[in-house]
Write a structure and sequence with these properties.
CATH architecture of the largest domain: Roll
Shape: globular
Order of helices and strands: EEEHHEHHHEEHEEEEEEEEEEHHEEH
Distance between the termini: 40 Å
CATH class of the largest domain: Alpha Beta
CATH superfamily of the largest domain: ApbE-like domains
Number of helices: 9
Number of domains: 2
Number of strands: 18
Helix content: 25-40%
Strand content: 25-35%
Largest sheet: 8 strands, antiparallel
Oligomer: single chain
Length: about 350
């Protein structure tokens, strides 16, 4: 599986005034690679002798997630489902059923803007496991790929004896990369809990989730990067308060073809990469999976539609649009509760 190859969030911990830092505490940082991006786990109050075992457990968990969701691995669970050219229900794990159920829910809320069946279009434009095309796809090629998409063709069946995915369009190709980072981040959080670790900040690519406090006894905070690939500057800072956060941006994963800069984010309605002024969407939610699903849908919709939907759904959203040479930000009332005043020490 290959996602955004450069994280759009900077996981860090800034001080909160009034905190007592007199008692030194241990901090541990673990990191590695997965799903075409990077993962990072920061822990507080964990014995240093556990580092090697935790590193191995984390990598094993993420490798298992990749083996489930990857469209790059031909033997993954998802790849096998995509190759299946029938309509009979196919057995899957509870986790796989959950991620698809959440994707279908958010897809419906965004009127199809967040569409995990957009895989044929992702591949057509060269952002999947296939190579980039030698030319801009023709209208006929786009129409043919769009004919193989549609959330209405994908179903989740849940019963006491198990879970199944079913497609009523044999050629349907599911791409879960829009939610994979959030899915894996939530798994890391559950792994920490199973290990008896209560103070952690975990991230996979552009998805982050935290619990407890950092090594200074302060709440975890995250910085949202300025939406440009020419610098690594901070646009805003937030106090996660134990929530998940995810950012989707159109400015880091792209290529140029026939003189045009093409974003990896595909609009299911047009079958083409987005071209509007919205360049970054950040969402804070209870889970990283939910945040990761919403941020992509909002990016597809564009600034004004994203604002309207964020207000309707009471989402904690931070949008950055490019107006000429300037970046213009907007946040929902729910997001403002997490924002840190730049003047705060």
């Amino acid at each position: 599986m290959r996602y955004r190859n450069i994280p759009l969030l900077i996981a860090a911990a800034w001080g909160l005034s009034g905190c007592d830092n007199s008692v030194p505490r241990q901090s541990m940082v673990l990191e590695g690679k997965t799903m075409g991006t990077v993962w990072r786990v920061t822990l507080a109050d964990v014995d240093a002798t556990r580092k090697a075992a935790l590193q191995q457990a984390i990598q094993q968990q993420l490798d298992a997630d990749d083996q489930t969701l990857s469209t790059w691995k031909p033997d993954s669970v998802l790849s096998r489902f995509n190759r299946y050219q029938g309509t009979a229900p196919q057995p899957v794990s509870a986790d796989m059923a959950d991620i698809v159920t959440e994707a279908l829910r958010i897809g419906a809320k965004t009127a199809g803007a967040m569409d995990i069946t957009v895989g044929p279009l992702v591949n057509l434009w060269g952002f999947g496991p296939t190579r980039a095309p030698a030319h801009i796809p023709t209208d006929a090629e786009i129409a043919a790929a769009r004919a193989q998409t549609g959330l209405q063709h994908l179903h989740v069946i849940q019963a006491a004896e198990g879970q199944w995915l079913q497609k009523d369009l044999p050629g349907l190709y599911v791409d879960l990369s829009t939610m994979g980072e959030g899915y894996a981040t939530d798994h890391l959080a559950r792994l920490m809990e199973r290990e008896g670790i209560n103070n952690y900040l975990v991230s996979v690519g552009g998805a982050v989730l935290s619990r407890g406090q950092n090594a200074q006894g302060q709440r975890w905070r995250v910085a949202i990067q300025k939406p440009t690939d020419s610098e690594n500057a901070v646009q805003a800072r937030v106090d996660l308060q134990g929530h998940g956060i995810s950012t989707s941006g159109s400015y880091r994963n792209y290529y140029e073809l026939d003189g045009k800069r093409l974003s990896h984010i595909i609009d299911p309605a047009t079958g083409r990469p987005i071209e509007h002024k919205l360049v970054s969407a950040t969402v804070i939610a209870t889970t990283a999976l939910e945040a990761d699903g919403w941020d992509t849908g909002l990016m597809v919709l564009g600034t004004e539609k994203a604002k309207t939907l964020a207000l309707q759904q009471h989402l904690a959203v931070y949008l950055i649009s490019k107006e000429g040479d300037k970046f213009v930000s907007w946040m929902s009332p729910q997001f403002s509760a997490f924002l840190i005043d730049d003047k705060e020490k």
